[in-house]
Amino acid sequence: MSENKTKNEIEDKIQENISHENSNTILDENLLDSEATISIETDSLTSDNNDTKENDLVDFEKVDNEYVFSNPDDNNVNNSDNIENGVSNISSDEELKEKKFEIKNQVSEKSHKKTIIGISIALIIIILLFILLSTIFAIVTSYKKTIINGVSIKDINVSGLTKEQALDEITKSFNEKLSKDLTLKHNEYEINIFPEQFNVSFDLEKAVDMAYSKGRSGNIFQNNYEIIISRISGIKITPGFTYNEDSFKSLVAEIETNLSDRLVEPSYYIDGNNLILTKGKDGVVVDSEKLKNDIIYAVNNIDNSENTIEIPTIYKTASTLDINKIHSEVYRAPQDAYYTTNPYAVYPHVDGIDFKISVEEAINGYNVSQDSFQIPLKVLSPNVTTNQIGTEAFPNLLASFSTSFSTRNTNRSTNIRLATSKINGTVVMPGETFSYNQTVGRRTAAAGFKEAGVYSGGEVTTGIGGGICQVSSTLYNSVLLSNLEIVERYNHGFNPGYVPAGRDATVSWGGPDFKFKNSRAYPIKIDATVSGGTILIKIWGLKGDNEYDVEIQSYITSYIQYKTTEKKDPALAKGATKVIQSGSNGCRSVCYRILKQNGNVISKTLISNDTYSPHNKIVAVGTKE
């Protein structure tokens, strides 16, 4: 039965798929889905008849349920032997199925291989095209001398510009930024500053080099990636900048001095035969780190409309004085001053000091006092003071310096004479640090100081002790020329004029101080006098074997143009103007100390790099109707 079933299926398929004469004819792939497939070549069925052609296809014919071969060109029916041979070549169901699966797998494998080969070829072509186009793109960009599209330096578009054009463009813009002022404000206190005061300098050349390197500094793929990113989302370059830290510290010191609600720490000092105790006052100190960050941010974004900075402050509680501790520090037995000449040595006198009142009385009096309390002292004077041993103990004049002042301003002259007298005769031992504020003491009316001109908030105003900075500046120059170590010194906010720029030393009680250390091996003595309108300060000591000739060199490096500001004046007729303060330029300066021996320069040391603000011209504009 299975043989008859197979024959029936074969008969159906053969009748449907007989094709024209063709050697090695293979059934169409559609036959692979059938239960059986057969391909019969004419050379497998050889007829005894010599007239039968090679490679002719033969057909099965069913006659009385028997299969016979029929030749299209020959009606010979005597081919029973060929029928048996043809039927014997028919495979079984299992063989046909295996054949079908084998052919399917071969076709599938060939098709898969062709797909992979096609995809691989396409990818290779795409990669080669990308490399080719990238190479061309990179070569074209490298030959261009302009910055690629989409690059900006601090919001300034420099696309398509050469390095020189870009530098000119951003230099013009940044110079304009640096000329804009910033207002620092705290309550009623205001001060205008300019970035130039801090020697703010943007590294524009480096920023331009960085902009030009975009799309050029890497390999082909990195360069093209940068070019694409720049075109899509843009590349923004922020130039770095530097500033002068010392100028900033001077600004903070000036601000703290002028804040009405500033912290005042308690202090004490000896004035004659009295110990003056001053109470502190809770208040604010400038948060210098935050202020610095705020100024840096403002300078970096100075084209913003907001140019006012609220001065950041920190509220602090003033400390309290420990009277018992002060008594132990103040009390001492007197010691005579003396010196020796072989070797030279000076031993300064020491006053014996004690409270005239008991410690308990001092504590009670201080607690009930308002701002200050005065403790009378018993000064136990030695038999020989340091001043009494004379100049023979200080045989060599190390340096001297003088400045001039107008005696017509009597208050200022009084302050100068008083401050000079307080530092006169001071002996500073080797390694000891001299403090101008501690030596002169607090500038108060009770101490004899007068109201005189001072700088405050960019304007000339009056304050107790005006003029004493000229004494500290004169002393500063004598100290420099004596080759002593500077411990603390601040320049004025404005060029004071009585010494060259870079050679002044501003002081303020509770604020900036001038301090120096006796870095020599022998004690030094300050000889300070005032005669007419001249302050003369000499420093005496003992010259060593390896002594230097000292020169101080200072000069102005650049000027800062003053601005004109207006103030509304309701007492002045509307539209009328009046100059309240004339303008003068500020400047930047440097100061060097040069040491020489036998006329040869041994060293040249930078002492300071200072900035002085301009005096802005102030014009009152009337608003009175």
Indicate the radius of gyration in whole angstroms. Answer: 52 Å
How many individual β-strands?
A: 33
Number of helices: 13
Provide the residue-averaged pLDDT. Answer: 81
Oligomer, anyone? single chain
Major β-sheet annotation = 4 strands, antiparallel
Uncertain parts: 17-88
**Shape field:** elongated
Assess the beta-strand content as a share of residues. 25-35%
Helical residues, percent: 25-40%
Strand order of the largest sheet: 10-11-18-17
What does this protein look like?
The chain has 625 residues and is of the alpha+beta class. Among the domains are: 2-90, no CATH class; 145-243 and 283-316, no CATH class. The protein is 31% helix and 29% strand. The strands form twelve sheets. Strands 10-11-18-17 form a four-stranded antiparallel sheet. Strand 22 (451-456) and strand 23 (459-464) form a beta hairpin. 27% of the residues are buried.
In short:
With 625 residues, the chain is of the alpha+beta class.
List the helices and strands and how they pair.
Layout (H helix, E strand, L loop, with lengths): L1 H16 L41 E5 L2 E5 L9 H9 L4 H51 L7 E3 L2 E2 L5 H16 L3 E5 L2 E5 L7 E2 L1 H10 L6 H13 L2 E3 L3 E2 L2 H14 L8 E5 L2 E5 L4 E4 L1 H13 L7 E3 L2 E4 L6 H8 L7 E4 L2 E4 L4 E4 L3 H10 L3 E9 L15 E9 L5 H14 L3 E2 L4 E3 H5 L10 E6 L2 E6 L3 H14 L3 E4 L26 E3 L6 E8 L2 E8 L7 E12 L3 E10 L3 E5 L4 E12 L2 E13 L4 E8 L1
Parallel strand pairs: 3-8, 5-13, 29-33
Antiparallel strand pairs: 1-2, 3-4, 5-6, 7-9, 10-11, 11-18, 12-14, 15-16, 17-18, 19-27, 20-26, 21-25, 22-23, 24-25, 26-27, 28-31, 30-33, 31-32
Helix pairs in contact: 3-6, 4-5, 11-13
